[in-house]
Specification:
With about 140 residues, the chain is mainly α. Helices cover about 70% and strands about 0% of the residues. The protein is flat and about 55 Å long.
């Protein structure tokens, strides 16, 4: 069962790591545009589909920002200190890296100590093919 789930665990660890730093989203100033496959894999991670939605129009973003500002304006303004999210993001990337490495270690051990390496390989291939086939339906 563990070998069957290995491809999914590796996929979610990798895509989760790059999503921590929003590498799947283009920058607002246009200086960064992610590769299409990064966007598609991120969509699969978040929404279980490869379909990438079209980028929001500038006017839509402005109206959303204006609406959010109106909601936050009022008598109940809080004076909170703004904390940097970088330390927790680094922690989560390290968690993803640890999960990725420990999963690969488990896969190595499956091959190293298995009596039937064909069964291990079959489970690994099935772990790749089953989600791909499910995505087609």
């Amino acid at each position: 069962m563990g070998v069957f789930l290995t491809p999914a665990i590796l996929f979610f660890a990798l895509t989760g790591a790059w999503q921590t730093f929003s590498l799947q989203s283009p920058s607002k100033d246009g200086s960064y545009t992610p590769p299409r496959w990064v966007q598609q894999f991120s969509q699969l991670h978040k929404n279980a589909t490869f379909a990438v939605p079209p980028p929001k129009k500038k006017s839509d973003e402005k109206s959303e920002n204006k609406r959010a500002e109106e909601e936050h304006d009022g008598t109940a303004k809080k004076t909170e200190t703004k904390r940097s999210p970088l330390p927790i993001k680094i922690f989560f990337v390290l968690v993803s890296l640890g999960l990725f490495i420990s999963t690969l270690t488990g896969l190595y051990m499956s091959y190293r100590y298995a009596r039937n390496k064909v069964a291990v390989s079959g489970a690994l291939v099935a772990g790749v093919l089953v989600p791909l086939l499910l995505e087609l339906f």
